[in-house]
Amino acid sequence: MSKQFDVVVIGGGPGGYVAAIRAAQLGFSTACIDEMKNAEGKASLGGTCLNVGCIPSKALLESSENVERLQHKFAAHGITVEGMKFDLATMLARKDKIVSQLTNGIGFLFKKNKVTSLLGRGKLLARNGDKWQIEVRDGATVDTIEATHVILATGSTPRQLPGTAVDNKLVLDNVGALSMPEVPKRLGVIGAGVIGLEMGSVWKRLGAEVTVLEAMPTFLAAADEAVAKEAFKLLTRETGLAIHMGVKIGEVKVGKKDIKVAYTDAEGKAQTATFDKLIVAIGRVPNSKDIAAEAAGLQIDERGFVVVDHDCRTSAPNVWAIGDVVRGPMLAHKASEEGVAVAERIAGQKPHIDFATIPWVIYTNPEVAWVGKTEQQLKAEGVPYKKGQFSNVPLGRALALGENKGFVKMLADARTDRILGVHIIGPFASELIAEAVVAMEFGASSEDIARIVHAHPSLSEAMHEAALGCDGRTLHS
């Protein structure tokens, strides 16, 4: 007889493993199926985010920023070092150690919460009475288990560049970009999104000449225009990335030791660039291929997303889907919160997620973070608004850090003063945005933030001043 569970989660990423833990906490017998393995062939929970995405990229970003500080910034503090060198192998080993520590941590949490971990690829088969049949395939080993409820959390995979195969030797996706054994002299990046900019920044600081080719005419189109403009200036002038917008990629020739990329630039002129390595970072697609048999009746749209309602219910009874495989932003924290919400809905609770207050972060230097509406969105929607903006230039803490580029921008409703959006570029923007998220979740006004006492000296004072600026009463500009 097949093993039976109340809840089975397919996918062990930040959506899936969190959903499994919460379901177990609520008293359900729970299993989580995931196929990712480490170098030793053992289960490596955490999905793309923890294994080959969010976590390892932040580890390398920090290492590369330390190199840059030592080379270019410490002299201002009176600190000089002769013969500075770095060991890339040690950096990569540190990155791998962090990943291993966290993946093992998820295994510990599964044991603590009595979640059964199953190694393999999960597939939804058909319903037998009120139980779903689920295939678990690990190589030649195939088992079948049963569940009353199934949560699909299969994540996403890198979008492929047509006609160019990723081998993670010369042509790289996010996996290869995190594991280059030596710094390439000439690095090409196709795509000026989050992954392209973060990985380009890492290898530029470590000594590569980095060229970024982006098809879209507008840089960081999802971000506020003022933030995007500042980010482009700082990433090109200070980080040193060569970013070309509005290009059309032509033939990509992969040789034995290099790659030649033919493209048409924004002015319509034919160009050719030669790289030692090429990172393809043109977005991600939902991992929905072969996750369900036809008999399951699972509806998948033309873009490959599993169709769900507002509460993450699919077209199949008692089957839910969360994270990158469904509508909405492909963000780890969005997936996690959906996982928690689905587990609680299965238990009969009524959780709520406000998609309008999900924060976005790009971990470049300076960091970029935002929540809510951009100024261009408010203009397009005809929403009357007011804004306050405060530069980090005169900020005491930012000056002490030696990181006083960027600003905080707040947008508030002109009639009610309710905060509609906050946009930050500068040091620790990823941490500062949390105040804005909390404020918006509680329906705060710019006046509320303006009346809150912020510690001095701190980076959060820029948020305070931006709020004051919504009524034209900044104190330090």
UniProtKB/TrEMBL annotation:
Protein EC = 1.8.1.4
* Record-annotated Pyridine nucleotide-disulphide oxidoreductase dimerisation domain positions: 358-467
Q: Which cofactors must be present for this protein to function?
A: FAD
Where does the record place it? Cytoplasm
Coarse class of the primary localization is cytoplasm
Q: Could you identify this protein by its name? A: Dihydrolipoyl dehydrogenase
Task: Report the cofactor remark.
Answer: Binds 1 FAD per subunit.
Q: Which InterPro entries match?
A: Class-I_Pyr_Nuc-Dis_Oxidored, FAD/NAD-bd_sf, FAD/NAD-binding_dom, FAD/NAD-linked_Rdtase_dimer_sf, Lipoamide_DH, Pyr_nuc-diS_OxRdtase, Pyr_nucl-diS_OxRdtase_dimer, Pyr_OxRdtase_I_AS
Record gene name: lpdA
